[in-house]
Amino acid sequence: MRMKRTKRTGPMSAVLLSLAAAAGVSACGGEKGQLMVVFQTDMSLPKDIDTVRIEATLDGSVVYDEMFERLGSEGSILLPATLGFLTPDDPSQALRVRVIASRGGKDGVRLLREVLTTVPEGRTATLHMPIQFLCDGSAEVERDAQGNALRDAEGNVLVKNSCPEGQSCVAGSCVPREVDSRELPDYEAVAVFGGGAGDGDGLCFDTLRCFAAAASAPVDLEAFAADGTVCRAAAPSGDVNVALLTQGGGICGEIACFVPLDAESDAGFRVEAGNVLRLPVEVCRRAQSGKLAGLAIAAAGEGQCRRKGTDLPTCGPWSALQGGASTEPDASAPVPVAVAQVHPVSLRVAAGGVTWIAGATFDGEGMAREDGALKTAPVDGGEPLILGATQASPRDLAIDEARQVAFWTNAEDGTLRVVPLAGGEPRVLLADLEQPEGLALSGGALSWTELWGGGVFRAQLSGSGAEVELGAPEELTPTGTAFSSPYRVASAGDTVCWTYQGTLGRTDGAVACRVGEASVTVAAEQRTPREIALDVDGEGNAAAVYWASFEGGSVFRADLSGAEVGAPEEIVSDQGQLNGLAVDEGHVYWTRRDAGTVVRMPKGGGEQEVLASGQARPGDIAVDEATVYWINEGSPDGSDGAPVKDGAVLKRAK
């Protein structure tokens, strides 16, 4: 990792609003009070949040409404930031402040924090309105019956709260939105800006450095199951810093993502007698649902990092403080899109996001549990959206960008399913399949393999969006074939190619293609060919087929551009266990499961280049114009069958 000094590149201008004037009434004499609203975050900008809208109304009249975009980018506002309101002519008038945070622009609403209060007289009070990871998902866009976003006169989307009327999200729980300003603390800049006066001279909390040597710890889910109102975890003696270990939200290093919690805070953690951590209930709820990998706990105090509190904001490109250094991952190292995954098995990059399958675990009798999932995240990373949960051994997927849906195969229950990429209820398209495995999409048709049944099929799609339907399946398997266990499949234009993995330790695998109306065997006597990829020309047609032998350690190629399929050509050998394969306009890429490497080579032959090493059983791989993406399957399950949640989705620039 490398250290980066935080810079003050685009501070938010201090705003002090006279609510009497803003509401259209004259101010009277006397000493005015102030309410200083403080905005900060425990997330990473712009990865998690890139747009914030702040609205304020006084007894229903709008007094402030501003949109701040490109958060975390050069020239944007910096956090923490403050917004001051003067006491109105009638101090009893209600001030409502709403903070709406979005990702992917102002329409990608993620969370809402709302407070209803008054402005005190004769003093300046502090109101903290943090943008919290635990409240991610606390708001959504209002829509009409057809699903279209509703907008105000200025074109901004209308946002509704996920909490009941009169409540708002704090640390993942719905609490009353009304705050008594008499109970708010007096404003002190040093308590907001890391000990500084608000001119960038304070310190910030360097998350990656402070948790570099942290120990991981679980939350006590047994106790939570017994009493759902209390969330606890054990902590070592002495002062500590605590962070949530997420799947992609928060501040990410090379192998983990952290959301630091404020010490001695109801919205963070408190240390109780016997070194027990008291945590927000939402922490246990997320851990129980598998959305959190646990906690990171690190020593704090003398010779260590300072204890994180509300007075010590996080460091990062978004920081308004110059008095701290921000540790960032090595620019040459792989960047995590998602971490703490359970055995991911398949990956696609499309529609501005990365979508993958988290594999199922197995019980003591070798039966797959229904704990697999289909997940998606933006290409820049962030907390994944679960598109399909409790899946029975999901195996492969395909993305339809035009319809904005994802398809996947479930081997255990023999289904082919579809779900909108934005989230929604998954739907079964086909059932009673014989262990469906590979899946590919092109030209409005889905192709899939059935591992047990031995067949390869294609069916045309119809309909739009989530209402897509699948036509009658057409079998593509060559007549009289003796090959077994069709595995992965790839398609482009009118060409579909697939592998028969055969039997481990034997040369009974094969590769076949359907080109136009003819199905042909491209190569026989292969050693466990699994992964397959097509080289596609500028018109969307398959120019060549590539495949990789899991056991044999070879990559092969056959030309598809002529009237007949070309002879197989071995272009790479002695590569160990090949577990992923991709092709772009200039290179062929593969992953070595045994060596933990990601490798590429020019398609025309030449020097091999290791793009990443030290990977944990790397598997499926994908490329777009500028980036290489791959999955790490992670460590094998423990002796008790419990999964080790160290799988990951990673990327690096080409």
The strand count comes to 51
CATH architecture of the largest domain: 6 Propeller
Query: CATH homologous superfamily of the largest domain - what is it?
Result: TolB, C-terminal domain
Structural class by SSE content? mainly beta
| Shape label | elongated
β-strand percent reads 35-45%
Biggest sheet strand order reads 14-21-16-18-17
What is the averaged pLDDT score?
Answer: 91
CATH overall fold name of the largest domain: Neuraminidase
- Percent in helix: under 10%
> What number of domains?
3
Short note summarizing the structure:
This protein has 654 residues and is mainly beta. The protein folds into three domains: 154 residues, no CATH class; 99 residues, no CATH class; 319 residues, Neuraminidase.
Can you describe what's shown?
By secondary structure, the chain is mostly beta strands. It folds into three domains: 34-187, no CATH class; 207-305, no CATH class; 335-653, Neuraminidase. It contains four helices and 51 strands. It has a five-stranded antiparallel sheet. A hairpin with a 5-residue loop joins strand 33 and strand 34. It is elongated. Residues 1-15 and 18-30 have low confidence and may be disordered.
